[in-house]
Specification:
This protein has 14 helices and 14 strands. With 381 residues, the chain is α+β, with helices and mostly antiparallel strands. It starts with a helix and ends with a helix.
């Protein structure tokens, strides 16, 4: 087998080599349209469901069979005022484990995705002896919106509900090795790492910059820090900056943008991400970057911060994460923080004073605790 078929190699010529890489993620989307849906809400009682046809997703040499179950009046009694949806893994190989994520949504009359709900698939859920029964969005669609005059026609044109399920299965790690052929010519490659390096250099040396970011100096309140940047880069990465530079706004006319509500370190991290697609020490910087990503509509960065914070919740940081998630509409992080606090409620008895200014969050935590208690009572009975 020649070297082109062997795939990637380390960035240095050696007599022999080994390269560990990750296969591409597998993406699959499945749409399900249900007619006369208003009758389903009125006719299918709480706890009962309708099924879609089964569909297959081929991932890394294996076929996974899935099916959607829709509960028009909710899956459980506490969800009876909502439509619930469940993605069920029907069949799989006992030797194949995987991780990934899914997203449920409804396709509106305008073709937009609304009521988006995200769920994660952990590899531990798919291990032998631990079957994954399904991924549930219990409060998927509120009945109140489906019955609202004018709103229902947008969500259910001609009384048809179209549900979209998007599945992403993470690529597996693969390892390749080989030895060089004497005299073989190394092909020239342009890769993402080189692109990231070049744009990092452009950011660091400020060559050809045409706009300045102005921030407060953390060491001297009377001074400011000026960061030369490039309009084209910022506008291509952020809809907020694009709007700023596209119209006759003060920032565009003066070629200056003041950012005084975000600390200097976070602004630099955000700019570095916009130029290179990379963030160093993400575990310690996600909470501040989440705020910056939300303000400047950096959706990928916001999602990365949510996933990182959700995976690293602790007694020390979960309250701050909950407040930030609520403030910046980070649904996945908010749900994870609520679940963590409920599961570790005994550790937060002395922290309740921190929530005096947030009565809505207190109410939400109590509801989550009540649901957890009710679920335990049902299991015991």
């Amino acid at each position: 087998m020649d070297e082109d078929k062997k795939g990637k190699k380390p960035p240095i010529e050696t007599a022999s080599w080994c390269y560990r890489d990750k296969e591409e993620d597998v993406h699959h989307d499945f749409a399900w349209t249900i007619t006369n849906f208003s009758r389903k809400i009125n006719g299918v009682p709480n706890g009962e469901y309708i099924e879609s046809d089964k569909f297959n997703v081929s991932a890394h040499g294996m076929d996974l069979e899935w099916q959607l179950c829709l509960y028009p009046s909710g899956k459980d009694s506490e969800d009876e005022d909502h439509v619930s949806i469940l993605l069920e893994l029907v069949s799989r190989s006992l030797t194949f484990t995987f991780s990934g994520r899914i997203e449920f949504s409804v396709v509106s009359e305008a073709g937009e995705k609304v009521f988006r709900k995200k769920k994660s698939i952990k590899e531990s859920d798919t291990q032998i002896g631990r079957p994954m029964f399904g991924l549930l969005a219990a409060k998927f669609i509120p009945h109140s919106l489906l019955k609202m005059e004018g709103q229902s026609s947008q969500i259910m044109p001609e009384d048809k509900l179209t549900v979209l399920c998007e599945i992403t299965i993470d690529g597996k790690d693969v390892q390749q090795s080989g030895k060089s052929q004497q005299g073989a010519k190394v092909p020239f490659k342009i890769c993402l790492e080189k692109l990231s390096f070049d744009f990092s250099k452009l950011y660091q040396n400020s060559q050809f910059s045409d706009v300045t970011i102005i921030c407060n100096d953390p060491n001297d309140k009377e001074k400011v820090v000026r960061i030369p940047v490039h309009k084209a880069i910022l506008a291509s990465r952020s809809p907020v900056f694009e709007a700023m530079f596209s119209y006759s706004m003060a920032e565009s006319e003066r070629n200056e943008v003041k950012i005084i509500d975000i600390n200097l370190g976070t602004v630099k991290d955000m700019l570095n991400y916009m130029y290179t697609g990379k963030i160093e020490d993400l575990n310690t910087r996600s909470i501040n970057l989440l705020e910056a990503a939300d303000k400047y509509q950096l959706s990928e960065l916001k999602e990365i911060c949510e996933e990182t914070l959700s995976a690293n919740l602790s007694v020390d940081n979960s309250l701050e994460c909950l407040l930030m998630a609520d403030l910046h509409n980070a649904t996945e992080l908010k749900n994870a923080a609520v679940k963590f606090i409920v599961e570790h409620s005994v550790d937060f008895v002395d922290e309740i004073d921190k929530f005096k200014e947030y009565p809505d969050l207190i109410a939400e935590l109590f509801k989550a605790m009540a649901r957890g208690s009710a679920s335990k009572r049902r299991k015991l009975s």
